[in-house]
Design goal:
By secondary structure, the protein is α/β, with parallel strands linked by helices. The protein contains 22 helices and 8 strands. The chain is 57% helix and 9% strand. It starts with a helix and ends in a 12-residue tail after the last helix. The relative contact order is 0.09.
Amino acid sequence: MFDSLSERLTNIFDRFSGRGKLSREDVEAGLREVRMALLEADVNFKVAKAFVESIRERAVGSEVLESLSPGQQIVKIVNEELVRLLGGEQRRLRYSPQPPTVVLLLGLQGCGKTTTAAKLALAVRRDGHRPMLVAADTYRPAAVQQLAKLGKDNQLPVTLPQGGMLPPELCAVGVAEAKRLNCDVVILDTAGRLQIDEKMLDELKEIRKRVDVGETLMVVDAMTGQEAVNVATAFDAAVSIDGVILTKLDGDARGGAALSMRQALGKPIIYCGVGEKPADLEPFAPDRMASRILGMGDILTLVEKAQSKMDERQAVELGDRMLAGRFSMDDWLQQMRQLRDMGPLEGILGMLPGGRKLMQQAGSAMPSEGDLRKMEAIVLSMTPGERRRPDIIKGARRRRIASGSGTEVSDVNRLLKGFDQMQAMFKSMGGKGSKGVRGKVRALRQLQNIDPTRIGV
């Protein structure tokens, strides 16, 4: 996500940070590079120009040029302007005071709308609501069946068309069914088209007449860049949308759609799709996204992901075993699976401050998804006793494990050596008293009830 833009901006700011003093010429040269980086990221020309101008107005003042750390001041200004460009305050889904809240999803064919409907239902369910899906795309082959399967796989109720029902009637029936089942959010998956046409727009208008729609959200493919902004603008002019859901943002190395959307359209991005799994839909937070783009990480989102995937009591017990040097292969396997549930390793590291640089330095040494699967196969080929006590795994056992996991003995040796090193490192970190890691962990546990958003992370 934003890899190419982030790399360009990081290189520009690294040159600023290495200077004790900056002249106006230095700032102007850097801003020209920022502007080029934005244009190459497929950001709207007018948006890029206005963004750079807003930075220039603040960066050439005495606050920066006479500062003891001008490079840091410029990064601070760019971060603040980037947050403003992305929308400033986070815009959340608005729930109706008189349920159900009806969310109308619209968009072009192929933007990921049906999958997004199910992801959105799971997102509102995590917020404590009871969603229902309505399969109102009766035109695309298998669209109804796709939503029905997504609903079944994720235990979500779905209203399906019956007896040649037209979409407006189906949407009205879905809302009535939601009231009967006490569902307080209804998500309408309407038909997509290869282009904006009158028939499609008339159908959307008719749905609005039959149903009291609370939120009209446009689903757009982030990877189409500037074209995504053009499509959203055309839809907004025709039917007036309330916000945007950007899909496939995890595959968008440039970021042009995300950076242009709010400024060019005047509508907020509410959610973004960051993966293929049903849970991979995140609320769009401008401050967190700006931090990711500038390589500062996104600790709050990482913590939220970890909290949703890991049991707190198990994590505490596991931490105690690690620091005591009693970390087993079963523990390692559990941790690895939880880590993989949080998403691709690159995405997790990208949320850490300096994570992108770490990945660049690691290069080919970074474990791939295939490497992780291979390591999991090796551990699963061990007996329960071997997983508890890896030190008993000698020559014959190693050959048996390699054969059972479809790997080489050298792969087994490498895994066991790495595990031994990790055990030794954790044991040395354990320490005693308040100065050791264990003492620090105890102190940190006392802060668990503090709201992380109140801390300057």
